[in-house]
């Protein structure tokens, strides 16, 4: 490698350190996952059973579907809190169309996805065209979309879908107990993973999260990229809504109420920085699975709901605080040693 | 760079481990079926000992369900020497309830006593639990009849609606006026049935002076119910009375009224618990309210579940069984067991109750 006599501790070095922290966070998640599965299987009756995995998978599918685009959004330094309301509104519109006699599943799914994309586009427009903070915009649409869901169905529930649809949505992969929808999630995870980690677009997303101004100078169209991210998030939330409707055989205005918190919790626990610019999809997926297993295993172990809420809340705090504290400690440790040998590359 | 790679591979490995575990789990033998329900003794007319009976309310931390489950169901289960438990979500959502039904089914529970947050959304999970050997008894709020073995009806919808309208009519006085309903969630099966029957009741000539102007929903959330009550009075200045057929709603509305200028002028009745309403009955905000005894409801539900799991009854119309201190009950149409008539609480009798 080339000689480097002087090296100011600039942005590059800091980014490398942050990346190293991110790497170790993945290791922490891995250990946690293995521990939870291992200890759970040994100590809690039922965790090792195929039915447990079926139930866990069914529960995490909608969270995983929304967490995929949410990861990209948060990496750019934005957030979308309206996802659960998009899910709810899609459910009710699907339900109303069914009541009106639309009996073709592909048509219903297509309409749902288009609607989701449209709702996402509204978010994207407010954020990019008007330059408003996404936190404020999506808190607004969180309430707006949920309100519209109540306008569509009110206090009614649409529940008379054909059993082939409702059973079909949760049907297992032949020979297994795990629902086939997980394959859809896996394929989409690969797509989102490739976009984030193996394309110039993905690199651009990190650049935006680190410094939107600088990203703009490298030729990335920040506004357009972010707009399409919100559209993708809307569409994926709608897909989760379709699954939700069929899985619970019930379209209601309050479907998925509060799910945005579960999604954001999983993304942050997965090591994505709430400030943007850092985090990887693999970590997020591990966190989604970890939270799902933990919840179900603790439930099986007769842990009451209140304790469960405290545990997941604490995990979230740890995930937000943990990496930052680790980075801070490293920084201090380095400063304590005045003569730092140059890293051998 | 290398740290990053290692992390990625590690996570991939973890996912693989999880999936492999799941896959190998499937290859193993079927789970042992629930113990056969045919008792050894043919003629025994008693409930079997050691039955695992779990109560799954709409949500935990709700005083109403604490009374029905922990002060009623628990007592009954102890009487026939079963194993009692109460579990459930901290928020009243159907999807959270599904997760708990799945858990109970995996724990090999003999009887699931559940108050449904949605009559359809928890159906699939209940059917799966029944296929695994559990008996399902609904109480407080029913599911579709095809998804459970029996439903314990706390009071007939007609009985409740008639008593609520009678109480508000007496409180408002002979001149009548505008009234409103403060309900729980917009989709609660029981609430909607009662509201429909109240409308039927209001259509009768003797109630022609009462005019229902609004139905609002407090979602069984104290703060939301409080705000909805506040909103009603702001929107309808001529409002004479509020009916809130939910324990959370009526307590929140009473709290608002007792601290406002409307105290004693706007009448309030509903379904409430004596402990929550005591202060408002004594300070004159509320003249009377109704309820069944939730402890009796949980008690009857536990005995019904025990009788089902012991094979004493199947839940068909005409089945007879004895529910401890409450005496003999007969299963009605659609597997429904009726607890009895609603009970009216006033300042004269409220101190006889503690729940």
Automatic annotation (TrEMBL), chain B:
Listed GO CC annotations: outer membrane-bounded periplasmic space
Highest classification ranks of the organism: Bacteria, Bacillati, Actinomycetota, Actinomycetes, Streptosporangiales
UniProt-annotated location(s): Cell envelope
Signal peptide start and end residues: 1-29
Keyword Signal: yes
Pfam family, one: Peripla_BP_4
Alphabetical UniProt keywords: Signal
Keyword Nucleotidyltransferase on entry: no
Domain Periplasmic binding protein: 53-311
UniProt protein name: Rhamnose ABC transporter substrate-binding protein
A Gene Ontology biological process term: rhamnose transmembrane transport
GO molecular function: carbohydrate binding
């Amino acid at each position: 490698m080339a000689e480097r006599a002087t090296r100011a501790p600039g942005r590059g070095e800091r980014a490398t350190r942050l990346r190293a922290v991110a790497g170790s966070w993945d290791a922490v998640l891995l250990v946690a996952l293995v521990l939870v599965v291992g200890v759970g299987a040994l100590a809690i009756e039922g965790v090792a059973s195929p039915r447990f995995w079926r139930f866990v998978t069914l529960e995490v599918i909608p969270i995983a579907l929304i967490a995929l685009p949410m990861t990209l959004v948060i990496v750019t330094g934005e957030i979308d809190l309206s996802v659960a309301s998009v899910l709810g509104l899609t459910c009710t519109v699907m339900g109303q169309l069914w009541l009106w006699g639309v009996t073709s599943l592909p048509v219903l799914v297509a309409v749902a996805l288009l609607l989701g994309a449209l709702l996402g586009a509204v978010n994207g427009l407010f954020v990019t065209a008007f330059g408003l903070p996404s936190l404020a915009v999506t808190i607004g649409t969180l309430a707006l979309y949920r309100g519209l869901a109540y306008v569509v169905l009110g206090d009614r529930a649409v529940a008379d879908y054909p059993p082939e649809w409702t059973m079909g949505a949760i049907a297992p992969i032949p020979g297994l107990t795990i629902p086939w929808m997980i394959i859809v999630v896996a394929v989409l995870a690969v797509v989102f993973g490739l976009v984030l980690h193996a394309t110039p677009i993905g690199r651009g997303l990190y650049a935006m999260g680190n410094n939107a101004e600088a990203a703009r100078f490298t030729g990335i169209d920040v506004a357009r990229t972010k707009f399409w991210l919100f559209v993708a998030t809307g569409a994926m939330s709608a897909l989760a809504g379709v699954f939700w409707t069929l899985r619970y055989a019930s379209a209601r205005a309050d479907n998925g109420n509060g799910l945005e918190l579960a999604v954001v919790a999983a993304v942050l626990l997965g090591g994505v920085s709430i400030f943007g610019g850092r985090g990887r999809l693999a970590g997020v997926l591990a966190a989604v699975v970890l939270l799902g297993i933990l919840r179900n295993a603790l439930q099986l172990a007769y842990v009451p709901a209140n304790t469960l809420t405290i545990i997941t809340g604490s995990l979230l705090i740890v995930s937000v605080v943990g990496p930052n504290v680790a980075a801070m400690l490293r920084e201090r440790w380095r400063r304590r040693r005045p003569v730092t040998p140059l890293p051998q590359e | 760079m290398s740290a990053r790679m290692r992390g990625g591979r590690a996570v991939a490995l973890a996912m693989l481990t999880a999936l492999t575990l799941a896959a190998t789990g499937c290859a193993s033998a079927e789970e042992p079926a629930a113990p056969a329900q045919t008792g050894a003794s043919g003629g025994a007319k008693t409930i079997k000992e050691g039955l695992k009976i779990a109560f799954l309310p709409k949500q935990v931390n709700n005083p109403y369900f604490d009374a029905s489950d922990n002060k009623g169901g628990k007592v009954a289960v102890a009487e026939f020497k079963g194993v009692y438990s109460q579990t459930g979500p901290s928020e009243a959502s159907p999807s959270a309830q599904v997760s708990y039904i799945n858990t109970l089914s995996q724990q090999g529970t003999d009887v699931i006593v559940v108050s449904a947050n949605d009559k359809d959304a928890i159906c699939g999970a209940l059917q799966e639990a029944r296929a695994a050997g559990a008996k399902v008894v609904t109480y407080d709020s029913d599911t579709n009849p095809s998804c459970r073995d029996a439903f314990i009806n706390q009071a007939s919808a007609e009985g409740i609606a008639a008593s609520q309208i009678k109480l508000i009519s007496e409180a408002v006085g002979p001149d009548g006026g505008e009234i409103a309903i403060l309900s729980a969630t917009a989709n609660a099966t029981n609430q909607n049935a009662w509201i429909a029957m109240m409308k039927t009741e209001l259509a009768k000539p003797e109630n022609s002076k009462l005019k229902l102007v609004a139905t609002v929903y407090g979602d069984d959330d104290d703060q939301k119910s409080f705000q909805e009550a506040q909103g009603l009075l702001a929107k309808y200045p001529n409002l004479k009375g509020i009916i809130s057929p939910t324990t959370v709603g009526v307590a929140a509305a009473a709290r608002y009224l007792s601290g406002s200028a409307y105290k004693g002028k706007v009448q309030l009745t509903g379904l409430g618990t004596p402990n929550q309403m005591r202060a408002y009955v004594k300070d004159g905000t509320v003249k009377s309210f109704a309820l069944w005894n939730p402890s009796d409801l949980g008690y009857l539900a536990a005995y019904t579940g025990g009788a089902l799991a012991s094979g004493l009854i199947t839940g068909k119309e005409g089945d007879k069984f004895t529910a401890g201190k409450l005496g003999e009950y007969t299963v009605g149409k659609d597997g429904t067991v009726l607890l009895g008539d609603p009970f009216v609480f006033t300042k004269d009798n409220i101190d006889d109750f503690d729940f």
